[in-house]
Design brief:
Blueprint lengths: L18 E4 L2 E4 L7 H11 L6 H5 L6 H6 L32 H8 L3 H6 L5 E5 L6 H11 L6 E6 L2 H7 L7 E5 L14 E5 L10 H11 L5 E7 L5 E8 L2 E9 L16 H4 L7 H15 L8 H12 L9 H4 L3 E5 H4 L4
Parallel strand pairs: 3-4, 3-6, 4-5, 6-7
Antiparallel strand pairs: 1-2, 7-8, 8-9, 9-10
Helix pairs in contact: 1-7, 4-6, 10-11
Bound molecules: S-adenosylmethionine (SAM).
Protein name: Methylase
Organism: Terrabacter lapilli
């Protein structure tokens, strides 16, 4: 077991071990357990696992706020907060996982890096709805620092205990605050990127447009909202890129090894599309065409799944307006113009 480490900002002074359950097993994350904030963090982190709920309930509840959110599912915002101060949105399940959002991070740090580089001021990137543990915000900061060393990543969560739990991990260029789709930032700063992953999926389809439009209003001139969804460990992901003018693209990113067919991403489509994967809708036609091309490319499997995927996408490009090229396809990723897959009215 790795040695425990002190956490900056924790007042308890006591250093002991805190373990985090992930699909990889139990991980020592070295949080002092006698600090109330850290205890909150502990309970919340535990809720991100796939262990049965009874396991969590046996943990001594360290705060009534946490107890409210131990039950999986959607919760109302705490009634004691006056409505005018409430962030826009609804507290939802905080499920997250380390490295889960790597595919989207790679895209932001790749084809979208120009947005960060062009910013005269240090660019602000928001991880909206980072969940029960702030791990995805920490990873986003690590990855984007390679693009712009002065990038400011701000994790925004609608659930107060999750913000308190994340604060001990603040560092230069990484901070956490309470908020919702109104994207509150100091001094009215406008974010260059807002990544909202696995957030809107727990809302109703007819809530998407309103949420997008609130975030759009906040974006910097070159800014982008990335509204995405993925599976528990990030092997299948899809996201819609929305700029100030509206949605611009749909990206699908898949782990190619062991892929049965590209439409495996269907159950991870963003909320704006997931209910539209039915005959007659463009996104259904797109996924069906991908599957057919994948089937026709089966002989390429002898050179590996990547060659099969490259051949699949090269064929599909003849019929669909893809916005990227082989360097992205090699990663199991493809981006199509939103206009081609947008839902019918
Ligand atoms: C399923 S978790 C996703 C965590 C992380 N983004 C990921 O993909 O692993 C969704 C989180 O979004 C938060 N959330 C929901 N609506 C929100 C909103 N309007 N603004 C900020 N956070 C929100 C929930 O409280 C929850 O913690």
């Amino acid at each position: 077991m790795p040695p425990a480490s002190p956490v900056p900002g924790c007042s308890s002074g006591e250093v002991c071990t805190l373990i985090m359950a992930t699909r990889f097993g139990w991980t020592d994350i070295g949080i002092p357990s006698s600090c109330k904030t850290c205890s909150v963090f502990r309970l919340l982190v535990l809720t991100t696992t796939h262990l049965p709920a009874e396991v969590f309930r046996r943990e001594p509840p360290c705060s009534p706020v946490v107890a409210e959110y131990l039950e999986p599912g959607r919760s109302a915002y705490p009634a004691r907060v006056p409505s005018r101060q409430r962030p826009v949105g609804t507290v939802t399940r905080g499920t997250t996982n380390p490295n889960r959002l790597r595919r989207c991070d790679r895209w932001i740090a790749g084809p979208q890096a120009w947005r960060l580089r062009r910013s005269v001021q240090p660019p602000v990137v928001v991880d909206l709805g980072y969940g029960a543990s702030p791990i995805t915000a920490v990873e986003l900061h690590d990855r984007l620092r390679a693009v712009r060393e002065d990038v400011q990543v701000v994790g925004i969560e609608i659930e107060p205990a999750r913000v308190a739990a994340a604060r001990p991990l603040e560092r230069d260029g990484l901070s956490f605050r309470l908020g919702g789709f109104e994207v509150p930032l100091d001094g009215g700063v406008r974010p260059t990127v807002v990544r909202a992953f696995n957030v809107l999926r727990q809302y109703a389809e007819d809530e998407v447009a309103g949420a997008w439009s609130l975030v759009q209003e906040r974006l910097a001139p070159d800014g982008l909202l990335v509204d995405g969804t993925c599976d528990e460990i990030g092997r299948r992901a899809a996201w819609v890129a929305v700029d100030a003018s509206g949605p611009v693209s749909l990206t699908v990113s898949l782990r190619m090894g062991g892929l049965e067919r590209p439409s495996a991403v269907a159950e991870r489509l963003p909320k704006a599309l997931i209910h539209r994967n039915v005959p007659g809708e463009p996104v259904h036609a797109f996924l069906t065409d991908l599957d057919r091309a994948w089937a026709r490319s089966a002989p390429r499997s002898s050179w590996g799944a990547r060659q099969r995927f490259l051949s699949t996408v090269a064929e599909v490009r003849e019929r669909w307006p893809l916005l990227d090229g082989p360097s992205r396809w090699r990663l199991g990723e493809l981006t199509v113009d939103w206009a081609a897959v947008a839902p019918t009215a």
